[in-house]
Amino acid sequence: MAVTQTTEPDSVLAKALKEGLIAGALALGLFCLVVGFRTEQNIRNELILTHRWGLLTIFVLGAAILRFVITYTAPLRAERKKIKRAVAVAKEPSAFRRSFPKIGLGLLLLYPLLVILILSAYQGSMMGGLQASLKYVDNFGIQILIYVMLAWGLNIVVGLAGLLDLGYVAFYAVGAYSYALLSTHFGFSFWLLLPMAGIFAATWGVILGFPVLRLRGDYLAIVTLAFGEIIRLILINWTAVTKGTFGISGIAKATLFGIPFTPGPTGFAALLGLPNSGVYYKIFLYYLILGLALLTAWVTIRLRRMPIGRAWEALREDEIACRSLGINTTTTKLTAFATGAMFGGFAGSFFAARQGFVSPESFVFLESAIILAMVVLGGMGSLVGIAIAAAVMIGGTELLRELEFLKLIFGPDFTPELYRMLLFGLAMIVVMVWKPRGFAGSREPSAFLHERKMISGEFTKEGHG
Amino acid sequence: MSENKALLRIENVETYYGNIRALSGVTVHANPGEIVTLIGANGAGKSTLMMTIFGMPRARTGRIIFDGKDITQMPTHEIARLRIAQSPEGRRIFPRMTVQENLQMGASLDNLQHFDEDSRMVFDLFPRLKERINQRGGTLSGGEQQMLAIGRALMARPRLLLLDEPSLGLAPLIIKHIFEAIKALNKNTGLTVFLVEQNAFGALKLADRGYVMVNGIVTMSGSSADLLADPEVRAAYLEGGRH
Ligand SMILES: Nc1ncnc2c1ncn2[C@@H]1O[C@H](COP(=O)(O)OP(=O)(O)OP(=O)(O)O)[C@@H](O)[C@H]1O
Ligand SMILES: [Mg+2]
Asked: Does B134 contact chain A (CB < 8 Å)?
């Protein structure tokens, strides 16, 4: 007895040490060239090789220690899991989970006010709070909500209809440039251009959709990818209209039904007798994009209950069965494409109004990939899951900018934003390992007769029994 | 038996997969209110004929006429809207949708107008489906999926029901149940049924008439009783089988 008791922890420790060393060696091999060395151009335009041994050491140590801790605590965690499994037999979705959408919505509605209140209290003055809240409302609030809206729009195409679209950002670009061009050339107002941008994008969705929708799966993905690139290249090269990489600047801002957010006497602040500040416009934009995102969600929820939404979901599962049930698969796909594109167009016109500047750089493939990642990570088709994925991914990148203290560890020229892709990759691996169907990976049936009974996606076989 | 009043008439149809001919010169018909069966060995072309009626794949030559209308070149979804329903090979139910939603998909042509009434009829036929109404299609057992595929086809209020091997992989008791259900539907509502089967004995017992297909060619046809008594049919499809 005594022998086993002493050897057991020892062997675990030995194993953990070994695995830690292996992980360290692997990390050394992987990062040696990528992180350890770096090429720089000196004043004479020569490439010189510099090295970053310190950073490399941190990476290697990090990997080794992490692996060591994971292996060392594995038996402990397994024990705990066993106990937990014995206790929790069957768990209904908790009250928190069920009411999460409502709580989240309430928080979103109150978010700017909460931020201002908290920061005012912190800074000791209302004005200081307003000024400081700018960053949180803009960088976190608006930025995240734009992506939530884009991901919800793409969700109609990918999550519901099951059409893999790798060029979604093209519709975002169409919306943004429609707004930018029509507003600078003709002076149309935001409220006229918002629906127009949506219609333009939807039209492009149909134009693209018509020839490609007979393609399936991978082929469709490649063609949509090419479409996204074509739109971007047109924006770069059609300089007479789009000004190329230079971009279009000085785009008119959105107004509150005609009331501009300018410092002048007819401006919003002056009319309400408030002190001048850029914050009101940001708060207005926040609620605007929140409204647009909620519109997307509402339309998605409504459509899912209607025959067309049903047809989208059925299409994702079995196209041949759909056709023999009398569903016109071509128009069904086209409507999915056009609806998704329309919301992309709305988001694009909002983007143009918010930035006041558009250039092709904002519409690269990476954007499509990020939006698609949100849909996949969130659990295809689940609005809440997608919103969480968007908040984590975009909020995470914004947070990275805030992590100034990392410079103390990694040295002064460490720029955390550059590790954004590393984080995306990590997030994807983590979610796919623990939740292969995304955060919220069970499709909520949209029709019930008797009591609600959830059967998680994990139990659902793919394919046809 | 006059062929002019036939509900479905397939004339001289040839279907190809690429360059390979799967059906040659197939002529088959079904009169209103009849149960017609098509039997044949694996790879004979039975499923191909059934799918050709729906235009997936299309017949390269010949004509398919339903209720006096030439549907040979009609888009598949429009063919379905003429109230031809099928329970296809491999069932093809929607795995992530519940039983209820699958049935609703079947009734979508009518915008669910008769959903309650028709689903009650399906549940009377297959009480098992009612017990599992909120279960996802993909998690049903094979037999339950078959019931769902047939039920979904019935929800479309078909005038012609095409069934591709409804007995595939099912227990004898359930096969019996499904065949009885088909018979009852045919008797009570005058539904015309076109039944593709491997289980030749059961199919011929159930049907009024039958066709035998070999390598994409219809080699024999006649009343079920005649086919059942035919020595060639007995040798090829019945002896050694379930007799
Ligand atoms: N999509 C396809 N592409 C190429 N050949 C096909 C295709 N589908 C079927 N075939 C071929 O056509 C022939 C007829 O196939 P079919 O599925 O109609 O047979 P079947 O009579 O239904 O057989 P079973 O009883 O096994 O279901 C077979 O030789 C098959 O290999
Ligand atoms: Mg077959």
From this structure: yes
